[in-house]
Amino acid sequence: MISLTQKYELLTKLPLLQGLSGKELAHIESVIGMEVNEVPAMRKPLIHQNDPCTHLIFLTTGKLMRHYESSDGLYTTKSVIQAPALLEPNNLYGLECHFRCSYTPLQDVSIITVRKRDVMQYLMKTDIFRINYFNLLSAIIHKKEAMLQPMRNLTVKQKIVHFLQTLFPDCEGQVEIAIKMTVLADYISETRLNTSRALNQLEETHIVELKRSLIVIPEIKALTAPDNENENENENR
């Protein structure tokens, strides 16, 4: 059991709660609890893809494996989400309030869950929380819009990078996608041969690691590294 001081320090570091005063946090804690729940590492997901999103979930400590399977079943992705973080706050409201991914504790983690009703009744009445939430949703929308640029003037390598960036817009560290070469080629509207050549070029520069029907990106940020961008620009000249 953590002390009130430790709990306050924890809450002030969480997304959406940064900037709230001690008085505001004390009031929120008194009316909705904000209890920290310990969850042990497990093999099965704590949250499954397509589960109803009925709570705002804060990951306060630890790491979760995030797993996604495309709606057509042609590829799956894996990435790690590390505390402090929020689990899909953009899916708490809207037409389809379901989790897009599955989440499995890689180690002992702690989480705080807040019911949607309490978010509306208490958190949204706090100016700082409301502004933080709207800014977060806007950032998610802007990132998705940036990924919708046409790919017709891109090289094959740039198309692959663009596709991977679209899948992992908010990730850090190692990520991976299980996908067949022919499927990837279809997604980027290229031939299998051209797709294979471009992937081999990315592997030669250690941007990706290729395994059987699996692409591992050791550091997702390397896809947008200056050297990689300059190389792609040179291909267009």
Structure description:
This protein has helices at residues 4-12, 22-32, 116-121, 127-146, 156-167, 181-187, 192-204, 226-236; strands at residues 37-39, 55-61, 63-69, 75-82, 85-86, 102-105, 109-115, 175-179, 209-211, 214-217. The protein is of the alpha+beta class. It folds into two domains: 4-146, Sandwich (Jelly Rolls); 156-236, Jelly Rolls. A six-stranded antiparallel β-sheet has the order 6-3-4-8-10-9. The protein has a four-stranded antiparallel β-sheet with strand order 1-7-2-5. The radius of gyration is 20 Å and the shape is elongated.
Query: In angstroms, what separates the terminal alpha carbons?
Result: 61 Å
CATH class of the largest domain: Mainly Beta
Per DSSP E runs of 2 or more residues, the count of β-strands stands at 10
The CATH homologous superfamily of the largest domain is named Jelly Rolls
Q: How many structural units, i.e. domains?
A: 2
* Contiguous uncertain segments of 5+ residues: none
Give the integer mean of the pLDDT values: 89
Query: How much beta, percentage-wise?
Result: 15-25%
- Annotated CATH topology of the largest domain: Jelly Rolls
Rg over CA atoms:
20 Å
- What's the helical proportion of residues? 25-40%
Structure class: alpha+beta
Give the helix tally.
Answer: 8
The CATH architecture of the largest domain can be named as Sandwich
Order of helices and strands: HHEEEEEEEHHHEHHEEH
Major sheet description = 6 strands, antiparallel
Strand order of the largest sheet: 6-3-4-8-10-9
Shape, principal axes of CA atoms: elongated
